[in-house]
């Protein structure tokens, strides 16, 4: 994590990176966007240690990016969902994925497809649907492996 020393540097990017700049944090937000919500599923999907996962989830919940909700009572188990603040990271994830696809392409092509649930179009560079022109967001876009 970056030091929290902004006496000589006033920078919104640095402050944002304090919350989502650590590698696992954005990958956790990405996975929640893709439909992963449970602790064990994060461990399996990411290969992250339990202690690191616990710390990152606590940080994202504490910062209001994720919400922790019980889904089972005996024993108590929780799932993690995006808050409005977390949903606002969706454009960042899409643009980062597009940037990665452009500058670090896989020989097989982009690993994920993002599609408008209304018509099946893809997001353009302005996150508008290429087919119908609708603005796209986390609520009206699906993602699946190619």
Task: Write up what this structure looks like.
The protein has helices spanning 12-20, 23-33, 39-46, 50-62, 84-87, 90-103; strands at residues 66-72, 77-82, 112-116, 141-145. It has 146 residues and is α+β, with helices and mostly antiparallel strands. The chain has a two-stranded antiparallel sheet with strand order 1-2. Strand 1 and strand 2 form a beta hairpin. The longest helix has 14 residues, at 90-103. 15% of the residues are buried. GO terms for molecular function: DNA binding. It comes from Streptomyces sulfonofaciens. InterPro entries: HTH_HxlR (IPR002577), WH-like_DNA-bd_sf (IPR036388), WH_DNA-bd_sf (IPR036390).
As an assembly, this protein is: single chain
Counting DSSP E segments of at least 2 residues, the number of strands comes to 4
What's the level 1 CATH class of the largest domain?
Answer: Mainly Alpha
| Total count of domains | 2
- In what order do the strands lie side by side in the largest sheet? 1-2
CATH architecture descriptor name of the largest domain: Orthogonal Bundle
Share in helix: 40-55%
Per CATH, what is the topology of the largest domain? Arc Repressor Mutant, subunit A
Output the CATH homologous superfamily of the largest domain.
Winged helix-like DNA-binding domain superfamily/Winged helix DNA-binding domain
CA radius of gyration is: 17 Å
Organism: Streptomyces sulfonofaciens
Protein name: HTH hxlR-type domain-containing protein
Keywords: DNA-binding, Transcription, Transcription regulation
InterPro entries: HTH_HxlR (IPR002577), WH-like_DNA-bd_sf (IPR036388), WH_DNA-bd_sf (IPR036390)
């Amino acid at each position: 994590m970056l030091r929290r020393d902004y006496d000589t540097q006033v920078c919104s990017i640095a402050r944002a990176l304090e919350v989502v700049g650590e590698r696992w944090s954005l990958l956790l937000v990405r996975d929640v966007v893709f439909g992963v919500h449970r602790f064990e599923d994060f461990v399996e999907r990411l290969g992250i240690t339990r202690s690191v996962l616990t710390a990152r989830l606590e940080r994202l919940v504490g910062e209001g990016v994720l919400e922790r909700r019980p889904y089972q009572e005996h024993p108590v188990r929780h799932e993690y969902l995006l808050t409005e603040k977390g949903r606002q990271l969706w454009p960042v994830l899409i643009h980062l994925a597009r940037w990665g696809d452009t500058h670090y392409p896989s020989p097989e092509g982009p690993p994920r497809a993002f599609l408008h649930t209304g018509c099946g179009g893809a997001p353009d560079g302005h996150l508008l649907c290429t087919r119908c022109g609708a603005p796209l967001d986390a609520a009206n876009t699906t993602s699946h492996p190619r």
